[in-house]
Every structure is written in structure tokens, then in C-alpha cells.
Amino acid sequence: MRAVRLTCKHWEALSKSRSFSKMHIDKIRSGESLMIAKMGMGCNLYLVRIVLGGVNEDPFIECQDRLTCKDKQTKISQVFHCDGLLLCVLRMRDDVTKYIVWNPYLGQTSSIESPYSHRPAGWNWFTYALGYEDKGSTCRGYKLLRFRDKFFDTPMHQYSCYEIYDFDSSTWKRLDITPNSSRRLPYWGGVSLKGNTYWLASQRNTGQDLLDDHIICFDFTSESFGPLLPLPFYAGANDDVTIACVREDKLALSLSRINEAGELEFEIWISTKIEAEKVSWTKFLTVETEMELHPLFNSGSFFIDEEKKVAMSYSKTFNIVGEDGYLKKLKFRERLGIDRNCSVMLSSYVPSLVHIKQPAVGDKRKQHKDFEAQGYDKKKG
């Protein structure tokens, strides 16, 4: 199997000096807004820096580097961020037998084999998360979660699968989680915060199963889901809700709706206290804008600068909105030199000095057989 190597010339030079790297990372954590931009279904990712500027200065976008996979046959479908690490899910039609975990700052990668030696029938879609278990002040045990959760009225269509990979032991195991008929777990869109992952979710059997009116947390230490946690606002069937994180400290929620005046209104909330079973919130920003502009949610993510009290995201242009009608539109595709028809997905990124533990050398075939013998690949999706 060909090794996948991904490089970043700018960071390669910085990472040669650990003391300088630590100073550089501390600077980024304290003020700069970095994002990873994935373009289409290709293998290229971009490191993007947003500079908001001072009172009389216009914001601008700076492309720090293009992060390129040297194996041109490798196509990245999804990217998930946790603690400076990226989990890269490869395009399904190209390879379903492995995942790539990558620290682009250090230039380190690791290939993790799927617990199956082939694609299980009917199990083409998983929800993914990357997180860690705190094992002390300086020790973290990283884990990869993937799951399917379906619950229908017909017993034969009730099925689920929850699997977790432990980086320390280099092994997969199936979690003993009983499907819950009162909740609907998400298919995508989770955010990682302090080692755990949070998703929008909903109650089942309410007549509005597809309404994201709660959040739910997966705790990587207990390897279990917490309870459904209510949102700080009412979200109707025609409202849009998005979840994000503020650097590595807080959760954020956005709500878009048509107000009584017929205007498009955005509310941004940030967490003041967060635990696996309890979250409290405060309203951060309210914005009313023109109907034809939908600036914050088309990319599936948004970003916040608490100090300047603005929210940012991509929708045809990179949009920055704030109080008192503040709106800036920045050319994004042109700045990166990409095709206008190419889809854009953004995620916040904070670099780190986390070293990726390489999988232990061993016989993977036995684990493949153990999983397949349990009959999950016989179920139909």
C-alpha cells in the first residue's frame, strides 16, 4: 500500500525548531484566525488566514499555503479537526479500507485500516469524529469514532453500529451502545471541543424528526453519548441552525430565520459553560440583512472573533458580518486561484505539536474476521 505524504513548505521550515514552533503556535492561538479549506472532491487542502485589521482597515484573506497530497490518486472526501490533527476520510469509490490522520504543522501522517477488509453491504455511510481521552495533564489518548444509527418503526429496519479506534493500542472495538428510540443522531457536521464531539440532534417521534432542536455530546473518555441538550432558542421547521466552535474554548450556535418584518435575521450564541450533560449560553450577536444574502451557512460552518464581535463564513464570497449593519464581502476563490464551480468546505484550525502514534505492526486479518463474523455486513441500509 502506497504511503500518503502531505506537505506544507511554510510549516516544514517552522517545525524544525521546537521552541520557535511553540512560540509561533501560541501566537496563532492568541489572535489569528486560521482555517482549512477543502476544494471539491480533490486531494488539495488550503491553509487560509483571515486578517480582520484595525478600526479603519479593511479585512483580507491570505492563503498561507497549499497542502498537497503527493499521491495524486488519493481523493479526500471529508476532513475533521481535533487538537491540531486532521482526520481525512477518503472518497468512497476510491478507498474504503483506510483513513488518514495528519498533523500538517509537523508533517506527520498515519494510515488507519478500517476494521473491515472490504465495504460491508449497506454500510456505505458513517458519521465520524476524532477526539481524545484525558489521561493526565500532559497525556492524551486519541481515538477515532465512526457510527451508523438508524431506528425505524419496522423491527427489521432497526440497526446500528458504533465502532472506535484507539491510537494507543492500534485496535478497533465495537461499543456496547443500545440504540435509543427517542433520539435521532446526526450523519455529519460535528465539532470537536476539549476532546469531545458535539452534534446537532433531535428527538424522534415528535412529528419533526428532522428538526435540529438539540445538541448531543460523545464523551471519548467514557466512550458514550450524553443526553439530548436543548438549544437556547426555539428553532422552527423553516429555520436553519449551525454548530461551530470558538477556537478551542467554546461552542457556538447560529440561528437564521425570517423575522416578523420579513427580513433575514441571524442570531449567534456562544457557550458560557459546557459539560457532557449541561451547557449554558449567552447571545453573542444579532444581525438583520438583505434577503438575497445568505452569508453564514452555505458552507456548513461559521467562525467567530469575540474581540471584534463579528461572525464569518463562505457563500459565493467570504462574508464577515457584525453589529450596526457591518458587512464585508471578500473574494475567496479568486484569492486561492480555484475554479468558481468547485465546492468549498471550511473548518477552523489551530495547529499543535501533537505527535501521531503510528499503528503497531501486527496481523490485521484476524480483527477483520472478528468484525465480519458478527454479521454486520449482512445488514442492509
Automatic annotation (TrEMBL):
Pfam families: FBA_1. It comes from the Eukaryota. Residues 360-381 are annotated as: Disordered. Residues 39-356 form the F-box associated beta-propeller type domain. Residues 369-381 have a biased composition (Basic and acidic residues). InterPro entries: A_thaliana_F-box, F-box-assoc_dom_typ1, F-box-assoc_interact_dom, Gal_Oxase/kelch_b-propeller. PANTHER family: F-BOX ASSOCIATED DOMAIN-CONTAINING PROTEIN, OS09G0372900 PROTEIN-RELATED. This is F-box associated beta-propeller type 1 domain-containing protein. It comes from Brassica campestris.
